[in-house]
Amino acid sequence: SYIDRIEAVDTKLDAFLTKTFDLAKKNAKESEERILKGETLSVLDGIPYALKDNMCTKDIRTTCSSKLLDNFIPPYSATVYKKLQKSGAVLLGKVDMDEFAMGSSNENSAYHIVKNPWDTSRVPGGSSGACAVSVSAGEAAFSLGSDTGGSIRTPAAFCGVTGLKPTYGRVSRYGLVAFASSLDQIGPFGKDIKDVASVLNVIAGHDENDSTSMKVDVPDYTSFLSEDIKGMKVGVDYALLDENKIDKDVVYNIRKAIDKFKEMGAEIVDISFDCFDYAIPVYYLISSSEASSNLSRFDGIRYGVREEGETLEDIIINSRTKGFGEEVKRRILLGTYALSAGYYDMYYNKALKVRKLIKDLYNDIFKKCDIVLTPTTPGEAFKIGEKTTDQTQMYLADIFTVTANLVGIPAASIPCGMSENGMPIGLQISANVFDEGKIIKAAYNYQ
Ligand code: GLN
Q: What is the tally of structural domains in the chain?
């Protein structure tokens, strides 16, 4: 039925880049046999899902939505994909994204403009836009995306689904094509927090192939799906909820959500985020610096599409010139500049210092609070094309999401009402490192 659904709606939404229906039918048949015998492999056995196209899948094309990787078939699989296969989950296909995960609207894909299922003239958010679309439109029961500065949470908010960026190091990044290695994290999308917790149970944990994955026990995340958040300390910075700075529909719905937390017995703690003015510049400097280094491997020699040229240097230049899109080139230039001798201390090193200050601020906040509530985005899903000519406006859409990556904490976006235009609004719930359980508990009680 999921395949039928994809056939029926994806011509309008354009979420899928590579469909793996033959494999899905074979895997579903095997699951069915196991289920009939009462020998299921996990709660995900037989459950159909979609993967963002920056996670390597052995023998299945993995493009990162880039022309440069148009023909790339990985010889190995990402750890998360291996874990999902072992759990019996059924891969339906690889879905679109902003090229190399750089973007907030999914408009930077070399393939499609993915549409928001609530209003197809609007963006689904990015960079894991199609992951959110696939769940929102009923094309997949869940999906896995990656989040470097909001790429799971923004699309979840824009498409009215739940998305969780786990703690940095909670989920293995082995086989995830790197964007900014100190910020990247894989996480699940689901229709609600229960589905997200069930998927997190399967993908979380240490992996010897990823030295940044942490050796911290994985609790049963579904055990946090219990009623009652009485006495939970919930941090709120009311100064952020200002109609002069962000959309009034966002302010209204977030305030309503905070009231509901109060009614449920949570204790609201006043906090102050003095860091938001610095968050965007620090994030774009650090992420672009890391990207400029990570993307140097795409030279047309080792991976992907190779353009012609007389010398080795010409081949590399031509492959990168034709293979990369505008936004990717912009980030490589910005990162290379920030890392260059003479500017390193002025930009990159300074950004690292401010990152440490932001981390200290969050440490203090989590001494006083169990969770923190903010909007996920400053506004509803915008119209396709609305922000493509003004990069600063596009980058500012990440104002509430980037700090979680800079600090390494987990954060989720859950649906919390609608705008006047009938578009979903997202509530962001953050917690201290490895406190995904508190987010799950709060979200479960709220939803
Ligand atoms: N929008 C942010 C960027 O363009 C975040 C992307 C992400 O999380 N992958 O860098």
A: 1
Q: Is the ipTM of this complex over 0.90?
A: yes
The residue type found at 321 is T
What is the domain-level CATH number for residue 90? 3.90.1300.10
pTM over 0.90: yes
Strands 48-52 and 90-95: parallel
Domain assignment of residue 50, given as a range:
2-223
For residue range 172-193, list pLDDT tens digits in order: 999 999 999 999 999 999 999 9
Helix, strand, coil distribution of the chain in percent, nearest 5: 40, 15, 45
Residue 436, ligand 1, Cβ within 6 A:
no
Q: What is the pLDDT of residues 88-119, one digit of tens each?
A: 999 999 999 999 999 999 999 999 999 999 99
In angstroms, the CA 248 to CA 177 distance is 37
Pick the atom of ligand 1 nearest to 397's CA.
Answer: 1
Q: Determine whether 223 is an active site residue.
A: no
Q: Is residue 84 part of a domain?
A: yes
Residue labelled with tokens 């995306």: 145
105 lines ligand 1 (CB under 6 A): no
Is 320 contained in some domain?
no
- What is the Å distance from ligand 1's center to 12 Cα? 25
Q: Is residue 299 part of a domain?
A: no
Q: Is the CB of 148 under 6 A from ligand 1?
A: yes
